[in-house]
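Folded chain entry
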Amino acid sequence: MFADYRANRYGEEILTDWGSALIYRPIGITLAWLLTATRITPNAVTATGALLLPSMLAMAVLFQPAAALASVVVLAVVYLVLDCTDGSLARAMGHVSVSGHYWDLVTDLAYRGCIYVIVGYLADQISPWPLPVSQMSCMALAAWFAALARLARYNLDRLAPAGNAGQGKAAAFTAYSFLSGLDTLFPPLVALAWAAGLLPFLIAWIVFYSFADVVLALLAARKRLRSCNG
């Protein structure tokens, strides 16, 4: 499983999501290998990850802010590991399907919305900032930006594949590759920012990065579509 990932997926993922490639993916592949000896299906792994989302919401409401944030960070890391497990398990078992890919995408979008809003909500209680708008509102906006950028790229690749536009995949690690790879490291970054008393600065960065991501996605779409249209 590791050899297959290294040969077919690592090269692309290290350029677009190095956080997962270096941290979550090795754990996910190991877990997938262990699960091949059981009757647990890839869809069951995806569903387990999805069930963590309402658990995060419940913790944010019911626990004290500090305990809630610590618990949410841990569950978010578990979710990201499971997110790297279901696809590996599906490929190992020969169960890759359109429905599995669809629900994985939906769950990823739901996760982003939940984790951003929850962290913003808890940050308002733990480390308030002086701006007139709440951190939760800003993170809700960031989640919308992130979803828009993700869907813009997804539909662009579906409607106008890069090969049709005469463009190949990125061949080098760039500054954008580095920033993009930080995306899935959001939970540990929250923990570090919290420990350093910098949660509001992390919130501001996420909002700025998410907005910039939308701009870059739309500029890339404009360039590719113009190429496709001749």
About this structure: The chain is about 80% helix and 0% strand. The mean pLDDT is 89.
